[in-house]
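queue> pop job 88
queue> type: inverse folding (structure -> sequence)
queue> payload:
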């Protein structure tokens, strides 16, 4: 990396409108299908590459058709086969030593090796997975130590720019920034105690310099470097983060041979990092003006500010008048302004095309990725040519916003009255000791009680039956018999395995949120509104647009049927209010806490009906509790208060001898241990297998008194853990948590797994439990 401190190459003009990224899975989940075919061995790496190239070129053509320029770097290049943080790791050569055999002589990793790092193989665990900032996207956590040999080990990012250029498009490559990469990484197993990945910043910075020089040589006019870590309050001292930002971007800006640099910082406000970036010499800075702001009086003279005024994180139509005002306010601070999405659009589905079943009125309130591109183009046109040039679009938006505000479903008097009647007493149950005694008398469970999280594999036969029922090819009776047969099979399997608390397997549920969204008023669901959750896994978030009510019981008949098949306790399975919000696209016209409490009241009624049907163990899942935690510490207490209270509102009406479970996954639990305690659940199961129980010491130090089930099997990998591996994890758990408080369970539900690996893994789990009990 060569530097030249005194001379700067004039930057090309930044496009007037752009987006920070685009969905990468394909409109019909083409990437998912191609990846899974490759993993099964049905197609070759070359066929996977060809499918990915076809998808990339189709996206370029679509974005140009929507109005982004073909030759001005307004179209981002942000493709990934699995995860953009994993892409950064393999580009930088940051491959854990247990996967060293996957690297070629030049340090590169092929697609099979890349997939192995993501998914694991044999006794080699994959990279740990956790949530990307406050979103439902999961990224793979890099492992960095003194032994990590950083070098530019992949040219894939550069190659994809060249591919686009040869197809007639000058794109803007999007890469994960060095600060975000290192601050999100964890110390490798080989690292000494106390080592922090950020200690390797100088070495990583050298590789980024080489990468930028490669982009310059390939002809890239601009490169986008994503640094969302700069908007988050993290464990590292803020002064350190800011000093490192000044070092990184001062050094990269001083390179003699580089493209113009656009540093994007989505998800909140840059605050004190904004003047640091402005003074570094980078040409453009992206600010999120949906979730964040720029203080009035900030000096932005001499820099291009890419104003994120179109919400990339949610699906509501943009208030174009408000967005235009925000852009003008930034311009008044002295900046050259471009308009953009606030985040990458990979958080939202591709298009509203094909969603006509939602009805014209609801459709008019919405904007998926393609529609958001249209909004950006409209705003750029209005700024360049005057609002009159986009008068029709502005008029249509005003009409849609007025329609939404006036709709009777968004303000129901009976719902508002029910919320107003809630008292503090509705959030409390009797003391845990009283409940525990009542539950022990009712169930008499052994030490290290065994269970699963809820779902069992969704087989092709289940999906075919559901699809045939939806299409009217089979009637209600035939569908119900098919689901009952699957439930009976799941119950028998669990009894044969010897599990202590059973589940019905959720055969009737398409998704843990959508199932409830289809049964609650105030929601609608899409046909193809897919977004990427992780790797090839996609989810279809429901649309929560109005006040929430429960017309009738939602789960009782399935749970009651399952309980009729066994003398063992059967868990009723519900999704908690925070998770229903987190995994839906939620109305933005009232506080989230109000919407959460509406959902909580519906769940409270459901719990009463489950109890009346004889279900004595009820799990209310909140895997997304940590996910919505605000990135700024100043905002976190208020969030935790309403999120915890919504769970307590849903569950505190339960009888003393009803055992309330909850489940949380992919969270930094140490950050919210007080909130987890505050949920007041009798049993909490958590993700812990990939991290090897690293959360349990924090739980021990907290003095957590209720029961806890740290996951002993990572279900997000296809590998089957051995009995010895699970035994070791259980021993680690017992070293922190007394056995009388411990449950044994997988990390998460088993919906995505196949029956062969599920049965083998549960057999190993039960054998390990027997060994540890002995």
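queue> result:
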């Amino acid at each position: 990396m060569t530097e030249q401190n005194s001379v700067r190459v004039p930057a090309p003009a930044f496009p007037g409108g752009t987006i920070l990224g685009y969905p990468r899975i394909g409109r019909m989940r083409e990437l998912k299908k191609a990846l899974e075919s490759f993993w099964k061995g049905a197609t070759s790496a070359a066929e996977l590459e060809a499918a990915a190239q076809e998808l990339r070129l189709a996206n370029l053509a679509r974005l140009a058709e929507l109005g982004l320029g073909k030759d001005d770097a307004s179209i981002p290049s942000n493709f990934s086969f699995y995860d953009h943080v994993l892409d950064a790791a393999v580009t930088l050569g940051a491959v854990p030593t247990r996967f060293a055999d996957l690297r070629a002589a030049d340090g590169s990793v092929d697609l099979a090796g890349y997939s192995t790092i993501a998914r694991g193989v044999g006794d080699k665990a994959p990279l740990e997975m956790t949530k990307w900032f406050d979103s439902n996207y999961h990224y793979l956590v890099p492992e960095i130590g003194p032994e990590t040999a950083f070098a530019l080990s992949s040219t894939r990012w550069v190659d994809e720019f060249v591919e686009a250029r040869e197809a007639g498009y000058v794109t803007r490559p999007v890469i994960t920034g060095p600060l975000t990469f290192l601050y999100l990484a964890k110390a490798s197993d080989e690292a000494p105690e106390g080592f922090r990945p950020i200690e390797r910043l100088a070495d990583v910075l050298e590789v980024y310099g080489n990468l930028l020089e490669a982009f310059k040589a390939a002809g890239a006019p601009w490169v986008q470097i994503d640094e969302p870590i700069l908007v988050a309050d993290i464990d590292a001292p803020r002064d350190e983060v800011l000093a490192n930002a000044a070092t990184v971007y001062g050094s990269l800006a001083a390179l003699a041979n580089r493209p113009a640099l656009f540093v994007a910082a989505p998800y909140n406000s840059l605050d004190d990092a904004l003047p640091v970036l402005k003074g570094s010499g980078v040409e453009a800075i992206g600010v999120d003006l949906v979730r964040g702001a720029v203080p009035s009086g900030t000096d932005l003279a001499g820099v291009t500010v890419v104003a994120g005024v179109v919400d990339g994180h949610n699906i509501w139509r943009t208030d174009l008048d408000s967005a235009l005002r925000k852009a003008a306010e930034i311009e008044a601070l002295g900046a050259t302004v471009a308009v953009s999405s606030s985040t990458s659009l990979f958080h939202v589905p591709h298009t509203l095309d094909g969603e006509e079943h939602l009805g014209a009125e609801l459709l008019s309130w919405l904007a998926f990725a393609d529609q958001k591109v249209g909004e950006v183009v409209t705003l750029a046109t209005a700024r360049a040519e005057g609002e009159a040039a986009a008068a029709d679009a502005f008029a249509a938006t005003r009409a849609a916003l007025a329609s939404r505000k006036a709709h009777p479903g968004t303000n129901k008097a009976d719902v508002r009255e029910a919320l107003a009647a809630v008292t503090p007493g509705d959030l409390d149950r009797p003391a845990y000791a009283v409940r525990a005694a009542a539950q022990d008398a009712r169930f008499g469970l052994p030490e290290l009680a065994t269970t699963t999280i809820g779902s069992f594999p969704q087989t092709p036969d289940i999906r075919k039956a559901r699809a045939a029922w939806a299409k009217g090819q089979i009637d209600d009776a035939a569908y119900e018999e098919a689901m009952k047969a699957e439930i009976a099979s799941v119950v028998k399997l669990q009894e044969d395995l010897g599990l202590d608390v059973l589940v019905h397997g959720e055969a009737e549920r398409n998704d843990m949120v959508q199932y409830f969204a289809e049964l609650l008023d105030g929601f609608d669901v899409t046909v193809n509104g897919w977004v990427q959750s992780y790797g090839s896994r996609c989810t279809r978030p429901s649309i929560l647009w109005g006040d929430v009510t429960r017309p009738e019981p939602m789960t009782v008949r399935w749970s009651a049927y399952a309980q009729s098949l066994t003398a063992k306790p059967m868990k009723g399975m519900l999704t908690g209010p925070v998770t229903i919000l987190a995994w839906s696209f939620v109305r933005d016209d009232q506080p989230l806490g109000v919407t959460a409490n509406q959902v909580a009241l519906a769940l409270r009624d459901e719990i009463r009906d489950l109890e009346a049907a004889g279900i004595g163990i009820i799990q209310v899942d909140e895997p997304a509790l940590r996910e919505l935690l605000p990135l700024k510490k100043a905002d976190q207490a208020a969030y935790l208060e309403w999120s915890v209270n919504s769970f307590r509102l849903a569950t505190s009406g339960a009888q003393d001898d009803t055992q309330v479970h909850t489940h949380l996954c992919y969270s930094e639990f140490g950050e919210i241990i007080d909130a987890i305690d505050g949920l007041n659940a009798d049993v909490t199961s958590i993700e812990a297998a990939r991290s090897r129980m690293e959360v349990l010491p924090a739980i021990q130090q907290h003095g957590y008194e209720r029961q806890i089930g740290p996951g002993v099997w990572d279900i997000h990998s296809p590998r089957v853990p051995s009995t010895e591996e699970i035994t070791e994890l259980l021993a680690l758990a017992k070293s922190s948590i007394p056995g009388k408080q411990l449950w044994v369970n997988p990390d998460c539900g088993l919906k995505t797994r196949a029956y062969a690996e599920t049965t083998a893994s549960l057999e190993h789990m039960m054998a390990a439990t027997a060994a540890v009990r002995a």
